[in-house]
């Protein structure tokens, strides 16, 4: 059964169409890649999927329920985990503190948040010393691992990642993609925006946003 469904999604900035009649179903346990040239609407699509933006037309359903009927804060803080290319971590805090704060914002009922945060950081390849460093003292790859752990802190069903390997070297990219593969194998729905063919090749499904007569639509390429 699909966990997230797009049905004829349209979105415009003023008179400029960005997305038109985008329809697709995303399933649990699969990793998807959305590709397209700069300006094709990939980031806009992720914003709509995460509930940060609303489509002009069409519907988005989570577990067959229209998300318009779900509190958007609850949707974003419980069901969707977002990972940004720029990490968006709180630079004054340690890796551990970033993950704990995410749990607190989500209102997670956890007896020992620090212990769970440490377990999450260990699961993405960071050790205790790295977990207790301020994030500015970590490498780009390590910061991306913190961002993934933070997104997982409230156990969302769906992971959205915007160019998650764009600033990483090839070896680190492979390690990060393996984490995403493992998450899909555990039943998460993983949706990635990327320009990298190597990332697209790893995913189960690849979809391309193309501009057609001042409009974009989502079509399967692989």
CATH superfamily: P-loop containing nucleotide triphosphate hydrolases
Number of helices: 8
Q: How many strands in all?
A: 10
Q: Report the CATH architecture.
A: 3-Layer(aba) Sandwich
Number of domain units: 1
Sheet/helix structural class = alpha/beta
Helicity level:
25-40%
N- and C-termini, Cα separation: 21 Å
Largest sheet: 6 strands, mixed
Which stretches of 5+ consecutive residues score pLDDT under 50?
Answer: none
Describe the protein:
The chain is α/β, with parallel strands linked by helices. The protein has a single domain, classed as P-loop containing nucleotide triphosphate hydrolases (Rossmann fold). It has eight helices and ten strands. It has helices spanning 42-49, 72-79, 95-105, 113-123, 128-131, 140-152, 170-185, 197-202; strands at 2-13, 16-27, 31-35, 57-62, 65-66, 80-83, 158-162, 189-193, 205-211, 216-220. The strands form two sheets. It has a six-stranded mixed sheet with strand order 6-7-8-3-9-10, with helices on both faces. A four-stranded antiparallel sheet has the order 2-1-4-5, covered by helices on one side. Strand 1 and strand 2 (16-27) form a beta hairpin. Helix 3 (95-105) crosses helix 4 (113-123), helix 3 (95-105) packs parallel to helix 6 and helix 4 (113-123) packs across helix 6. The radius of gyration is 17 Å and the shape is globular. The mean pLDDT is 90.
């Amino acid at each position: 059964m699909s966990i997230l469904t797009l049905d004829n999604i349209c979105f415009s900035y003023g008179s400029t169409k960005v997305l038109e009649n985008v329809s697709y179903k995303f399933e649990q346990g699969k990793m998807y890649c959305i590709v397209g040239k700069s300006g094709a609407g990939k980031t806009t699509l992720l914003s709509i999927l995460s509930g940060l933006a609303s489509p002009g037309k069409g519907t988005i359903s989570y577990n067959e329920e229209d998300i318009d009927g779900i509190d958007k804060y609850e949707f974003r803080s419980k069901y969707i985990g977002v990972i940004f290319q720029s990490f968006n971590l709180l630079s004054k805090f340690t890796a551990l503190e970033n993950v704990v704060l995410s749990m607190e914002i989500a209102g997670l009922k956890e007896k020992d948040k620090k212990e769970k945060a440490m377990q999450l950081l260990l699961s993405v390849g960071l050790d205790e010393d790295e977990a207790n460093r301020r994030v500015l003292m970590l490498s780009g790859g390590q910061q991306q691992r913190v961002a993934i752990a933070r997104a997982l802190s409230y156990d969302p069903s769906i992971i959205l990642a915007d160019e998650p390997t764009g600033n990483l070297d090839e070896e680190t990219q492979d390690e990060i993609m393996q984490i995403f593969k493992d998450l899909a194998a555990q039943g998460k729905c993983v949706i990635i925006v990327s320009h990298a063919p190597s990332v697209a090749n790893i995913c189960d499904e690849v979809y391309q946003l193309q501009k057609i007569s001042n409009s974009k639509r989502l079509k399967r390429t692989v």
